[in-house]
Design a protein that fits this description.
The complex is a heterodimer.
Chain A (H helix, E strand, L loop, with lengths): L6 E6 L5 H11 L11 E2 L8 E5 L4 H12 L6 E5 L1 H5 L21 E3 L6 H19 L25 E3 L9 H5 L5 E5 L4 E7 L8 H5 L5 E3 L6 E3 L7 E7 L1 E2 L6 E2 L4 H7 L3 H8 L3 H13 L1
Parallel strand pairs in A: 1-2, 1-3, 3-4, 4-5
Antiparallel strand pairs in A: 5-10, 6-9, 7-8, 8-11, 12-13
Helix pairs in contact in A: 1-4
Chain B lengths: L2 E5 L11 E6 L5 E7 L7 H7 L2 H9 L8 H14 L5 H29 L3 H21 L9 E2 L2 E2 L5 H27 L1 H7 L7 H7 L3 H6 L6 H4 L5 H4 L11 H24 L16 E10 L2 E10 L6 E5 L1 H13 L7 H7 L4 H5 L1
Helix pairs in contact in B: 2-3, 4-5, 4-12, 4-14, 5-6, 6-12
Classes of the chains: A alpha/beta, B alpha+beta.
Chain lengths: 293, 360
């Protein structure tokens, strides 16, 4: 096996410069350990074998990107940094966007994040180098690569991958409405279930959904594990199931209010219990009886 | 002998994509300059009309990640002007804290890039290290290193408790001596002085005529800081002290930025010490009637103007920006002409270009 020297060249295809700034931080601040990977930053794309691409690929950049790609010598590896390079993220619906970049170039590693933490960028580049080594040696790319930097941590308050607590969710769609990058979708299965999906590769990690959620069902974890192989691009989804319940009194099916909401409305535990398994109509009746009968 | 030189659009020394076509003479002095842009145009003005007011809080943040607090700040001010909301005093204070923290980080990044382009590696590392303290602070308090998501339409999303205030003060105590030491080094370091003094000159008269803003104006001796000439939020009481330099070159602009940083640190300390009690927002989802508003704020790069028109629906009818780099951009031609080819990227960096703001 020959020694591989990763030669990195960065291309900005129209990012808001967040990812580019964070890339500079990754490259020049020691604590992110990029130099342990032996990466060399090259001045000419002709010498590069590790391409870092940021941005959603604007219409203006497209021809320049295509032209630049023809100068590269195979084998090379492409690492897309930032949610917009993966899925165009928040800019997806614009007329001026021709991306994402995997329409034009074979992407190997995607790092979602808006912008990703330098730790995630370093992880993405490290995984890119693994893929490069395999390409150089003519091996097939594996389905997944284990985390390379194991000692990175994030503060608890870091806005990382979103998660859903199905217990508290009432499928009210507030998160869907406030999400700027349309990363959340709530759909009905037709047989009494709601499906709540969060597409991590479209999410721009702004925390709007968690902030506006009336029941606290959707929340951000501090996980920054977003450097994934291209093969995982479309499967990186958080799926939650929210079910209709059968009213224990009249037998109708209904969407139960979340426990969080109920405990706000009715402060006594026993009343919450009374209300838990009945539909809104029966709940009105039961509470009327409780107070006036 | 004429030489044609192109720089960009993808170039390791350019943070964002831009394309220079230069003509230089035998001394490698630029005699003609053409700047081609549009690479970062993402159709923002169309996008904001497709999204509702809550989504736009985040979308405006993504106009540019370096001034990502000023955009939602100005946007929120415009919406509040239309809906006639008075923001609680605590929210005003928290907005100023977020804004000034962001300003310190943004200016330090620009200075780090300057030293990077001047090939002063050691100084760049130290500047980046000083900036990292602010980045860590942002990550712990606001949850992200760049896009803080601090503002909402009638106030702010975050609050500070004793512990977080302590953290801010501790971080400032770490950063302040580092900034002072850096300021001294930028001012006196021989190699930095040699590379930046007399480079990229924008004379006072040209600066006035072109209407440049922010540190570019201040480096040419013009004070048009919005926080001073048209105070908003708490800036009327805080009275920021503006650093003016008259060197009109790359070095003066860098030192004007240091003045901003020092002043921002002073203001953070002052606001944190006198944080008013009370709510952090008025109502979570306000009603926004039909109306028009123009707001201007001071971003790290200069004056940022927001125009917003609403029709009582959930989405804006029109939103228009005038960003600082828009006026500073024209000044580039004055600065680059007659200077050396090797200095072009450094001169570009000296206006702290925010191309993603300008092209949107």
């Amino acid at each position: 096996m020959s020694e591989v020297i990763p030669k990195l060249f960065r291309i900005n295809t129209g990012s808001c410069n967040g990812c580019d700034v964070e890339f500079v931080a990754t490259a020049f601040v020691d604590k992110f350990q990029l130099e342990t990977l032996g990466v060399e930053l090259v001045n000419d794309v002709k010498d590069a074998n590790l391409l870092v691409i940021t941005g959603p690929l604007t219409a203006r950049s497209e021809s320049f990107l295509k032209n630049t790609l023809t100068k590269l010598k195979k084998p090379f590896v492409v690492v897309g940094i930032g949610t917009c390079s993966v899925s165009c993220g928040i800019f997806r619906d614009s007329y001026a966007i021709n991306g994402p970049i995997d329409k034009f170039v074979e992407v190997d590693v995607n790092v979602a994040g808006c912008p990703p933490r330098p730790q995630s960028i370093a992880e993405g580049i490290a995984k890119g180098i693994k893929v490069l080594e395999q390409k150089m040696n003519g091996e097939a790319t594996p389905k997944a690569i284990d985390t390379i930097f194991k000692d990175f941590s994030a503060p608890d308050s870091f806005r990382g991958r979103m998660s859903l607590n199905e217990e508290n969710c009432t499928a009210c769609r507030t998160c869907e409405i406030v999400c700027p990058s349309n990363a959340i979708e709530i759909s009905s299965t037709g047989d009494g279930w709601f499906v709540h999906k969060i597409w991590h590769n479209s999410c721009c990690f702004c925390g709007n959904c968690a902030y506006f959620c009336p029941t606290g069902a959707i929340f951000s974890t501090n996980s920054f594990d977003t450097a994934k192989l291209q093969s995982e691009k479309f499967s990186d989804v958080n799926v939650g199931y929210i079910d209709y319940k059968k009213c224990s009194s009249c037998g109708d099916r209904y969407m139960p209010p979340s426990k969080g909401l109920l405990s706000k409305a009715y402060t006594h535990d026993d009343v919450t219990k009374l209300n838990e398994k009945i539909c809104p109509k029966c709940r009105k009746e039961a509470n009327f009886k409780r107070m006036y009968a | 002998m004429k030489e044609k030189i192109t720089i960009g659009p993808f170039h390791p020394e350019l943070e964002e994509s831009v394309y220079f076509k230069l003509v230089a003479d035998e001394n490698r002095t630029v005699t003609h300059v053409e700047i081609i842009n549009g690479f970062i145009h993402r159709g923002m003005e169309s996008l904001v009309t497709q999204k509702n007011f809550m989504q736009n809080l985040i979308l405006t943040e993504r106009v540019c990640s370096l001034c990502s607090n000023n955009h939602p700040f100005a946007y929120a001010l415009a919406v509040e002007k239309i809906s006639g909301v008075k923001v609680p005093p605590r929210a005003e204070a928290l907005r100023v804290i977020a804004d000034e923290v962001k300003r310190v980080a943004s200016d330090l990044f620009n200075l780090a890039m300057l030293t990077h382009l001047a090939h002063h590696h050691e100084l760049m590392k130290d500047t980046m290290d000083a900036r990292e303290h602010m980045q860590d602070l942002k990550e712990i308090i606001w949850g992200n290193r760049m896009d803080m998501s601090a503002n909402q339409l009638t106030g702010v999303k975050y609050d500070l408790n004793e512990e977080k205030i302590k953290l801010i003060l501790e971080t400032i105590a770490l950063v302040e001596p580092k900034v002072n030491a850096l300021q001294d080094r930028y001012e006196n370091d021989e190699s930095i002085r040699a590379k930046t003094i007399g480079v990229g000159v924008l004379p006072y008269e040209d600066a006035l005529e072109l209407g440049v803003t922010g540190p570019v104006a201040r480096g040419s001796g013009i004070n048009n800081d919005v926080r001073v000439v048209a105070p908003y939020s708490l800036y009327g009481e805080l009275k920021p002290k503006v650093t003016l330099r008259d060197g009109c070159d790359v070095h003066s602009r860098a030192m004007a930025r240091f003045g901003d940083i020092v002043e921002a640190i002073r203001m953070i300390k002052e606001v944190v010490a006198n944080l008013p009690e009370g709510d952090t927002y008025v109502e979570k989802r306000p009603h926004i009637p039909a109306g028009e508003a123009v707001v201007r704020v001071e971003a790290p790069r200069g004056e940022l103007i927001y125009y917003l028109k609403t029709d009582g629906s959930q989405k804006p009818v029109r939103m228009k920006w005038k960003v600082p780099t828009f006026t500073n951009w024209e000044a580039l031609k004055v600065m680059i002409l007659g200077d050396k080819v090797d200095n072009v990227t450094m001169i570009l960096n000296s206006i702290d270009p925010c191309i993603s703001c300008t092209e949107r």
